[in-house]
Amino acid sequence: MDISILFISSGLFLGWSLGANDAANLFGTAVGAKVITFRTAAIIMSIFVIIGAVASGSGASHTLGKLGTITSLHGAFIVALSSAITVFIMTKYGLPVSTSQSIVGAIIGWNLFSSNPTSLSTLTKIVMTWVLCPLLAAGFSIIFYKIFKNRTKKMKLNILLRHYYIRIGLIIVGAFGAYSLGANNIANVMGVFTTSTELKSIDLYFFTINKTQILFFLGAVAISIGIFTYSQNVMSTVGNNIYKISPATALIVVLSSSFVLFLFASVSLQNFLISIHLPPIPLVPVSSSQAVVGAIIGIGVAKGDKNINYSKLKRISLGWLLTPLMSLILSYISLFIMQNVFLENVF
Q1: Which of 13, 212, 219, 304 has the fewest Cβ atoms within 10 Å of its own Cβ atom?
Q2: How many other C-beta atoms are found inside a 10 Å radius of the C-beta of residue 331?
Q3: pLDDT tens digits, residue range 266-324?
Q4: What are the Cα distances from residue 319, in Å, to 134, 232, 255?
């Protein structure tokens, strides 16, 4: 067995954790509203997460690489493992936390241990997206809700036809969201291994699959397994406990959060904005959890309801604050153990 495959197992564990936590959020609202079954949602997400990761996953990974380039395979293993354990613990308590925050915390832990300077400009850019992501999702959610409400009033559809269109819409935007998630968040799962592994490219005559695409494919498969095996607990939190939603509002939530993920993952969109002399949107791994929670709150604001579960929201927010800190500490301690107990160089 290639030693690289053994060490990227921590990245696969992180991918599984992401599938169990972040990926589930895309269809959590739809499943919670009983528009589609969990099995249907899981199949759709799995297919499009893999496509998005392999086809468009390189953009956000470059930004994460600027935060800390890990060239040691042992170091990459510990960083991914620390991040995965953090997300797993949060998932066990049903909290939709950010895998992006977890991997960033673990990388900073590696920087501190190895005396590698952390790029403050890159860190600032990433942290700003943690604030911007839920706010953007809430804003899009309000806008899309107003548009949807006006359009449905004019169309005057009967209940059965309306439910049918909403169900089809959820499947389409959920697939789009899964694609965007794969493109955006695969950097969290396998980004630390792109400079530390020595996997060989695979030549398939008509095209070649390079090392990064192999890593991203393996990570996406791990995400898919996480979706199927352990995501229903988080789906319940997102789909029912923050704010009671209807099938129509579930569609708005999935569309809004998916759109935000796409904005921070699309290289083509960034190049287009540059070509028309507009400031580009940074290609940064953002959290689907934060996007979904922001979109749900946006729905509550748009409807003028006072039924948002603020106690649950505070608990989720606390998880967001603890995630990078816990991952940083765990990463630093684990690196110390690997270096001083197992005598393996981690940088």
Answers
A1: 304
A2: 30
A3: 888 888 889 998 888 888 888 887 888 899 889 888 888 767 777 878 888 888 889 99
A4: 15, 18, 24
Q: Domain ranges for the chain, please list them.
A: 3-340
Amino acid identity, position 265:
A
> In what helix (H) or strand (E) does residue 180 lie, and over which residues does it extend?
helix 159-190
The residue behind tokens 């606390």 is 318
Cα–Cα distance measured from residue 59 to residue 142, given in angstroms and rounded to the nearest whole number: 28
Rounded Cα distance between 272 and 276, Å, is: 7
Does the pTM exceed 0.70?
Answer: yes
Neighbouring residues of 219: CB distance < 8 A, sequence distance ≥ 6: 11, 12, 14, 15, 53, 186, 189, 190
Torsions phi, psi of 196, nearest 5?
-115, -10
d(CA 46, CA 57): 15
